[in-house]
Specification:
- The structure holds 2 protein chains of 2 kinds.
- Chain A is built from 15 helices and 13 strands.
- Chain A is an alpha/beta fold.
- Chain A folds into 2 domains: about 210 residues, P-loop containing nucleotide triphosphate hydrolases (Rossmann fold, 3-Layer(aba) Sandwich); about 70 residues, CBS domain Like (Alpha-Beta Complex).
- Chain A has a 6-stranded mixed sheet with strand order 6-7-8-3-9-10, sandwiched between helices. In chain A, strands 2-1-4-5 form a 4-stranded antiparallel sheet.
- In chain A, β11, α14 and β12 form a beta-alpha-beta unit.
- The longest helix of chain A is centred in the middle third of the chain and has 18 residues.
- Chain B is globular.
- Chain B is mainly α.
- Chain B has a domain of about 230 residues: MetI-like (MetI-like fold).
- Classes of the chains: A alpha/beta, B mainly alpha.
- At the A-B interface, α3 and α5 of A face α10 and α11 of B.
């Protein structure tokens, strides 16, 4: 494994069990029990059970699940805000579980910063001092940290509000402060714990755009926890869907929607407008003779709904799928309608690296 | 039968056994039944061995002799024993030196300087209105001819408050950061807060003798618990979300405490400071009994010769000090976390700099123009006119006012018709039946633990051999609590109903809640003379504000949805009150009763200074005659009585709510 493809986080068989004698549950006789049975037999709750995944550099890794599925516990285990019960955990190839307090503090100060659902701002400090707080913890001088914080306040769109207290801001503005505080320490990975759940729908949408913009501009690795499927689909490069502490399915948005791993996932994604998530690469068929010349051209990663629009505008029967000027397939009415109706065989394109 | 509804048909037994089963489903009935069983077994045995109404002599332990020996030993060894030479002596000297130092500093500042310091500090902490109040208050103290006693009390207060805050914050930090310390400390602090101030005087007087060191230390012990409690609660109440965010940024334990936990608890810390200052003032005044000097001593001396005019002249400065200190610290607490206001020039360090300059200027001008002590010529003698007015009152209002009678008549009626029967009733009841009543009450309201503590505390009073005076005190407490609750609940129902009435009431309650207990004795002596009735009246007036406030808040805090529901079903206002508000506000009502009992006891005890007798009298007598053993036994009985009364009225929900 070379240095470039070392995952930012490598999580292997991670467990977090709450309750008496929690350390006996992972790998023990009770490890396979359902949550209700486990609680009855041992009094323990497995918030995270036997979870393994890698977070790759530059991706937005979304952990998604309903409340109580263990997603918030999982993301706290990553920086040991909650101590995992067992398993392996590495950041940039370095074992996190073996870190002593000093090195763990260094990890939290410089490498992973977190944005919280309820913001966690210090009410007695101004916006500027809240943003600078992480730098203050690191021991940076007052002038320097304020200078750096001022830049970030501007970056998240709060210019002019530096002197306000958190209580004088709207929810969305408070979360911008939380975001700026996390960004201020220039971490290699940003952790989000349901950051926009407490916001109203319009503000949430705005903040999601903000995250998309930040990711596009900086390419920072992000781990994003949410219970909102549309948010997960909008932001995620890959999504881990959790239930009862375990990961049910891990894949791209298209894989989750296009080929659900089981009935639980299927029920979960049932109401998703499939044509907006699935791409033509998954819906196309090989071109028949002569089809390569006519019809509008779409890229393989265009969504089905974009292809529908293109076909409808052209008035023709099909669109050509062109990858860098090369014809790779054709989507006709039947292909596109199949996706919308959900009758088309699940055939998502291979996950691109 | 209303209770029959509780029995579901499925589990109810045959018709004949149903009433019993239904009865057993009510926890109160079960408790009383269990108690009756215990009594049925124990009472005949007990009655056969120790019959008679008062506590049997065979069951008492006479502590006066050993305590007297301890007292003699302390007096004999105060100058030689290493414990005194190397620890208590230094402590005592340090206290004397610091009080003396602060006193001299205050005198050196001169009256103008002190007034300026007070005004400027009030301005910085709470705004210009309070600055004016502070300045006027200090000038009034001077005008009344009480400048020197005021400075004596202030010097004692400054030292005691600083020590209380230091001690309280240390204890609070320990309890706030460690669960085990918190669990160990909380019951102790809770109990200390319900004990009457008088109980603290004797042990301190025993060790340190009569004088300033003892007074300061008693004040510190009395005033530190609220600081410790609120510090601990504030530190523990820090928003877990914020604390997690702080940890996630890699803060060390020290950084977490200094940059997050302590600042987040600022409101509680200031509330603790406010309560500590108010309790310290209250105690510093009462401690005049063990030689604190100052304003309290003037009131104490005046009361013992029933010189209402002199008592009032010293009492007014106490009230003014209380109001200024309370409002200033309270306003400072309210300002925490708010945006700074006022012109930018006056904010932060520059404001303080300006304040220092103003003070320095006033001090210098004061030194050149006048003396340091308030000028003799500028004293308004109020004692004379007040006493004349009082004489007039004695002549015209005490008795013989047509139809309504006079104040002395009321006091006599209250004594003859309520206090006397109650006292002879309590003293005439067999001692075991008093224990049973207490057990039944405590168990119905609280848990078996509170009941057990209450019974043990009451039994301890008997063992100490002060059953009779304790029943005397208890009868006064019961009578005063009853009056307090009747007036308090009626007022609270009115205040909960009418927004306007509550607005009128609020400033009155504010002032009354601020005044130290000692001050209440002055007007009641003027109105009713001396005796048990005036002490009870003072207790009622002292306890009323808290009872009214808690009850009003409880009634107002009733879930509006439940009220709306009752209204929509067409309930009358009386029905709403009886069926919705009162049941839902039950925890608040019980808390009001508990607070009422604790506050009434505190004043009934110090009522001994105006002739209420009972346990308080034994304490005063012990101090006056140098017979500390008698006083100490009475002090211990006061502790037990306080504990018993608190536990009897302690609802289970109180602890439950605090846990959450």
């Amino acid at each position: 494994m070379t240095a470039t493809d070392t995952p930012v986080f490598a999580v292997g068989n991670l467990w977090k069990v709450f309750g008496p004698k929690a350390d006996r549950v992972p790998g023990g006789e009770h490890a396979e029990l359902s949550p209700a049975e486990l609680r009855e037999r041992t009094g323990c709750t497995a918030a995270v059970r036997d979870v393994s995944f890698d977070v790759r550099k530059g991706e937005v890794f979304v952990v998604m699940g309903l409340s109580g599925s263990g997603k918030s516990t999982l993301v706290r285990c990553l920086t040991r805000l909650i101590e995992p019960t067992s398993g392996t955990l590495a950041i940039d190839g370095e074992d996190v579980l073996a870190m002593d307090r000093t090195r763990l503090r260094e990890l939290r100060r410089h490498r992973a910063a977190m944005v919280f659902q309820h913001f966690g701002l210090l009410p007695h400090r101004t916006v500027l001092d809240n943003v600078a707080y992480g730098l203050e913890i690191q021991g940076l001088g007052r002038a320097e940290r304020r200078r750096r914080a001022a830049g970030l306040v501007e970056k998240v769109g709060l210019a002019g509000l530096e002197g306000r207290r958190p209580s004088q801001l709207s929810g969305g503005q408070q979360q911008r402060v939380g975001l700026a505080r996390a960004l201020a320490v220039d971490p290699s990975v940003l952790l989000f714990d349901e950051p926009f759940s407490a916001l109203d729908p319009l503000t949430r949408r705005e903040m999601q755009d903000e995250v998309v913009r930040l990711h596009r501009e900086e390419g920072r690795t992000m781990v994003f926890v949410t219970h909102d499927l549309s948010e997960a689909l909008r932001l995620g490069t890959r999504i881990a869907l959790m239930r009862d502490g375990g990961i049910v399915q891990l894949g791209t948005p298209e894989e989750i929607v296009g080929s659900p791993a089981d009935d639980y996932v299927r029920a979960f994604v049932r109401d998703v407008p499939r044509e907006q998530v699935l791409t033509v690469a998954g819906a196309m068929r090989p071109p028949a003779a002569g089809e390569g010349e006519r019809g509008p051209a779409v890229r393989p990663d265009a969504t089905v709904s974009e292809a529908i629009e293109a076909v409808a505008r052209s008035g023709g029967p099909a669109a050509r799928v062109m990858d860098n000027g090369r014809l790779v397939g054709v989507v006709d009415h039947a292909c596109l309608l199949g996706v919308v109706a959900g009758t088309q065989a699940a055939n998502p394109r291979e996950v691109a690296a | 039968m209303a209770t029959a509804h509780a029995a579901t048909p499925g589990v109810a037994g045959p018709p004949g056994r149903r009433p019993l089963l239904t009865l057993l489903r009510r926890p109160t009935a079960v408790k009383l039944l269990a108690l009756a069983l215990i009594a049925a077994v124990a009472v005949p045995v007990v009655h056969a061995r120790w019959s008679g109404a008062p506590w049997p002599g065979a069951l008492t332990v006479d502590l006066t002799a050993p305590l007297g020996e301890v007292n003699d030993w302390i007096i004999a060894n105060r100058d030689s024993h290493p414990l005194f030479l190397y620890f208590l002596g230094h402590l005592s000297n340090a206290v004397v030196l610091s009080v003396r130092g602060v006193y001299l500093l205050l005198l050196a500042l001169g009256w103008a300087g002190v007034t300026a310091v007070a005004a400027v500090m009030a301005w910085r902490a709470a705004g210009s209105r309070l600055a004016l109040t502070a300045a006027v208050s200090f000038v009034v103290c001077g005008l009344l001819g009480m400048w020197v006693p005021t400075m004596q009390t202030l010097a004692l207060m400054v030292v005691a408050v600083l020590a209380s805050v230091a001690l309280g914050v240390l204890l609070g930090l320990a309890a706030g950061l460690s669960d085990r310390t918190f669990r160990a400390l909380r019951p102790v602090l809770d109990t200390m807060q319900v004990l009457p101030a008088f109980a603290y005087l004797l042990p301190v007087a025993l060790v340190f003798g009569i004088g300033v060191p003892g007074a300061v230390l008693a004040t510190v012990v009395y005033a530190a618990p609220p600081m410790a409690r609120l510090t601990a609660l504030g530190l523990r109440g820090a928003d877990p979300g914020v604390m997690e965010a702080v940890s996630s940024l890699g803060a060390t334990g020290r950084q977490r405490l200094l940059t997050a936990r302590l600042p987040l608890a600022r409101k509680e810390l200031l509330l603790g400071l406010n309560q500590t200052i108010m309790m310290a003032l209250s105690m510093a005044v009462i401690a005049s009994v063990i030689g604190a000097g100052g304003l309290g001593d003037r009131v104490y001396q005046a009361l013992s010769s029933v010189d209402v005019g002199a008592a009032l002249a010293a009492g007014i400065p106490i009230v003014l000090l209380a109001v200024v200190l309370d409002r200033t610290t309270e306003a400072a607490g309210r300002r925490v976390g708010a945006e700074p206001t006022g012109p930018a020039v006056l904010r932060g360090a520059r404001g303080w700099g300006l304040a220092a300059v103003i003070v320095a200027a006033v001090v210098v001008v004061g030194r050149f123009t006048g003396g340091r002590i308030w000028p003799e010529g500028a004293i308004v003698a109020v004692a004379g006119p007040v006493n004349t007015a009082k004489e007039w009152m004695v002549d015209h209002l005490y008795t013989g006012v047509p139809v309504i009678g006079g104040t002395a008549d009321w006091a006599a009626h209250f004594t003859n018709w309520i206090l006397n029967p109650l006292r002879s009733g309590l003293q005439g009841l067999p001692w075991w039946s008093v224990l049973l009543i207490v057990a039944a009450l405590a168990w119905t309201i609280g848990t078996w633990r509170t009941a057990l503590t209450a019974v043990l505390a009451l039994a301890a009073i008997g063992v100490l051999g002060v059953w009779e005076p304790s029943m005397d005190t208890l009868s006064q407490v019961v009578a005063a609590v009853a009056v307090t609750l009747v007036i308090g609940f009626a007022t609270a129902v009115g205040a909960a109903r009418s927004e306007r009435f509550e607005r009128l009431l609020r400033p009155v309650l504010d002032v009354f809640q601020t005044m130290p207990q000692f001050v209440y004795l002055i007007p009641v002596v003027a109105l009713f003379g001396v005796g048990r009735a005036p002490a009870a009246a003072a207790a009622v007036v002292y306890a009323l504000p808290a009872v009214i406030r808690i009850t009003t808040q409880g009634l107002r805090g009733v879930d509006p949805a439940a009220m709306e529901c009752a209204r929509s079903l067409g309930a009358t206002r009386g029905q709403q009150l009886r069926q919705v508000q009162l049941p839902l506000a039950r925890p608040a009502l019980l808390l009001a009763v508990n607070q009422g009992v604790v506050l009434v006891l505190a004043v009934v005890i110090i009522g001994a200074l105006v002739g209420s007798g009972g346990l308080g009298y034994l304490v005063v007598l012990g101090l006056a005659q140098g017979d500390l053993a008698t006083g100490l036994v009475a002090g211990a009985a006061i502790v037990c009585l306080g504990l018993m009364l608190d536990r009897v009225t302690q609802p289970t929900t109180r602890t439950a709510r605090k846990e959450s």
